[in-house]
Design a protein that fits this description.
single chain, 2 domains, three-stranded antiparallel sheet, 4 helices, 13% strand
Length: 120
């Protein structure tokens, strides 16, 4: 089991800000079965974000919310839209293939840096 106090220490020592997705409109466009819709709409999308925000602000680390639109489809380096390969993998025309979650987190980081005025 990893020692999370080490991760917490590193985050406090090296982190200038935390970028998170703005989940304000996450429920828009969710059209599944009636039962699944009910389960999804009862789920607290923001609970983890609020906990991260609380701990970050307690430590003096600003939290930046960025628009998640396109973050899991846009290639982080060239900004071209990636096409769906098979399942969770996205494939760019240059040959780069990455998991959608990794692409999304990378792009959220880049949007956070842009919001801070840092060159990307």
């Amino acid at each position: 089991m990893p020692d999370f106090s080490v991760f917490s220490f590193l985050a406090l020592e090296t982190c200038s800000a935390i970028a998170l997705e703005n989940l304000r409109h996450i429920r828009r466009g969710i059209k599944y079965s009636r039962a699944l819709n009910g389960r999804l709409h009862r789920w607290s999308f923001r609970k983890l974000q609020k906990t991260i925000e609380y701990k970050a602000l307690e430590s003096g680390i600003p939290v930046i919310y960025v628009d998640p639109r396109g973050t899991s489809k846009t290639r982080p380096r060239c900004r071209f839209k990636m096409s769906r390969d098979e399942g969770r993998m996205l494939k760019c025309s240059c040959g780069l293939s990455m998991d959608r979650d990794i692409v999304g987190s990378w792009n959220i980081r880049l949007k956070g840096l842009e919001a801070l005025g840092m060159m990307v």
